Here is the input.
Amino acid sequence: MPKFFATNKFPLLDKPEDSAAETLVLTALQQTPGYLVRVLQIQIFEAFFEYFSPIGISPAEHSLLIVIRDNPAVTQSQVASVLRIQLPNLVKILLKLETNGLIGRKRSRMDKRAVELTLTARGERLATQASKMADVFNGLMLSPLSASEQKQFLRMLSRLVHPQMNRPDERPRL
Here is the structure.
C-alpha cells in the first residue's frame, strides 16, 4: 500500500511543519468551498500519482481511458469539452496514449473534420485495470466518511457540479 495511505496523513490540511507557515491564520480560507475543494483536489492528485504509479497513468490519462472506453468513437472535441481540457493540451496527452499503443485515432466518416478515438486491445486492458484500481482508490479517499456520508457527499458534489439538475427552487440565485 502506498505510504500516503499507510500514514493516513493529509499534508495540506495538517499543521504545517515550516515555522514561518505556522504563523499563518487560515481560518477564513478554511471556511470557503473554493479553498477546501482545491486542497482536497491536490490531496487526491498527490495520492493518485502514488497509488497509480505501478501502471504509470495520470488522472487525465485515467479519465481519457474511461471516457473513450465508455463512449465508442467519441471525438477529440467532445472529450475536450466534457473533461474541460484545452484541445492543444488534450492532443499532447492523446499522442502519448497513442504512442504507448493504448488508443487509436481516425477521421470520422460522418464529419471529416472530427477525429474519433477508440481504445486498442491494450488500452481496453489498461482501462479495466485502472477502473478496478479506481474503485479501491476512491474507497480509500472517502474512507474518513461513513458509507451514508460518502453517498451524501457525492450527491452534494454532483449537485454543485451540475446545478442545472437541481430543482428550480433549489438553484442558487446570482
Notes: The chain has a mean pLDDT of 87. Helices lie at 3-7, 19-22, 33-51, 59-70, 76-83, 87-99, 121-142, 147-161. The radius of gyration is 19 Å.
